[in-house]
Every structure is written in structure tokens, then in C-alpha cells.
Amino acid sequence: MKKTAVLLVLASMSLVACSQKESSTGATAPKEVEVSTVAPTELIGKKGVLTYPDFTAYMTYESENRLHWKTVSKEGKVAEGEEAVSYKRINDHIFFLSWIEADGFTVSQVIDVENGKVEAFLSFGDDQSERGKRGSLATAATFAFEE
Prior knowledge:
Elements: H1 2-19, E1 47-51, E2 55-63, E3 66-73, E4 78-84, E5 86-89, E6 94-100, E7 106-112, E8 117-125, E9 134-145
Antiparallel strand pairs: 1-2, 1-9, 2-3, 3-4, 5-6, 6-7, 7-8, 8-9
């Protein structure tokens, strides 16, 4: 049993060594590491404007677990709320946020602040739906920090 384990470890190590590139001198070349030159951006403590096809959302990212939103439809109808939010930084400029509003409307967003893009999934009550009495919509928006 011990011999088998040792042989497996040695075989794995030799495979790794064989798969590395060699330079013209026969030495192993270091692996290239991609380094981001973009300074990390933060949402917390800032305000953003998300422009969807049918409405504009004005967001205040109060903390990692609270946000305030205000939407204005193309017809001028205003809605507003304060929400508990799930917040996760994906990398230096992409964030995932999700929350459930008091009326059951759910919002999940991937916000790319560097490229000014938002991908969103919305879910809401729909008595006509055979899928848990819920309707849904995937949509996109542009993103800009509010000055």
C-alpha cells in the first residue's frame, strides 16, 4: 500500500515536471502571470445609475448588506425601497448583488463598473405561471457612478 502511494506521488511529480516548458538553456521557464493594471473599484459608499430599457434605477450602496434604490419608469412612475442585500466582489471591477423586496420581487445583478454594464435577473409573483406562480425576466442595463 505504501509503495503504491509513493509510486503515485512520484508519477504525478514527473508528469508535472515534463509538462513545464524548457528554455533554450534547458532551464524551466517561469509561468507567466497576468496582472491586472486596473485599480480596484468599490461600490460601497457610492451611488450608481443603472439605465434599463424601460426604467432608470438610482442606487445608493450603503454597506455590504444594505442598499437604497429608486426607480423612475419612462412614464415617470417612481418606486423606492431600502433593502437587505447579498453582496460579493467577483474581481477588481465586477460585483454580484441580490435582494428580495418586501413584495417578493427579487433582483440579481452582475455589475461591471469598468465596462459600464449590468446583467440582471428579475423574478416576481405571477399567478398565471405554472412555475411556482413566479415570472422572470433577464435584462441588461448600463452603469455609471453618480457624481
